[in-house]
Target: Aminotransferase class I/classII large domain-containing protein
Amino acid sequence: MNTFSKRLDRLPPYMFGKLKQLTHDRRQQGVDVIDLGMGNPSEPTPSDIIDKLCEVAYDPKNHRYSASKGIFNLRREICWYYERKFGVQLDPNHEATSVIGTKEGLSHLALALIDEGDLALVP
Model:
């Protein structure tokens, strides 16, 4: 018995996986490819950044999950950015959150906008 929805069979391949394979194939063909896919850096991280990361990793207060809405200072900076860039004022306590990536953000957006029983067109 299949316990998964039929929609899983229609899911396209993961775009970045496909791009990674194309990049690999082209490099195997001798093509000089500049990979702008997943944001993987081609240069090493600067040592001062690594040093700071190591320093803060030893601080026990950093051994916990961040707040579910994200760190307040980050949300405040996001709101300030939107004010400078777009001229809108946002409340960091009620109108800003941080997510771990685009997929999570889009999932949360759908949950915020679509109620059970609503019809949604999804490409």
